[in-house]
Amino acid sequence: MKTFFAIFFSVLFLSACNLNKSNHSGDLPSDSIFHLPSEWQNQKGEKLKLKDLKGKTLVVVMIYTTCKSACPILVADMKMIKSKINPDNLDAVSLVLVSIDPETDTPERLAEFAKKSNMTDPCWIFLRGNTESTQEFANVLSMKYKKISPVDFSHSNIISIFSPDGKLVIQEEGTSINTQKVADKVNEVVKQNS
What we know:
alpha+beta; two-stranded antiparallel ribbon; seven-stranded mixed β-sheet; globular; Glutaredoxin
């Protein structure tokens, strides 16, 4: 009887290990942002798809570089979040800023903005797409934006966290984001997926 239980629990343990392994390398959840087929460019001019960001915890915000009001606050929030993330976790995190003004925010402009803003560490990713892919991604985030003049946009202020498989974990909205709460959640998600 002891042998039966030993074999039973061994099989159960091995099954659990295999199940756990398949969760990390298996199919993406149906609501993963990595299913979006859109193409993007980063600040280096490299073309990529969102699925190329898979495997890291993502902190995402949509901005535009010529913004003089809300975006500087969001950029400062993102920098504050980075400073509050456990330094040991930063290799498992990407801080992603997606432009809502792809006409103006060329890769060169994004690179210049990153340099001027002291956001050149490897964890910082700036993206621009075409108008359709930008609108599609904004819709996924429930982020609203509208061009109100040749140089200005009205837009929501939302910072989103995605798990390494592209599933939305939480969103913080408003002009006074709780950066500690976001950083704590990032640390938690990294820990859960390491």
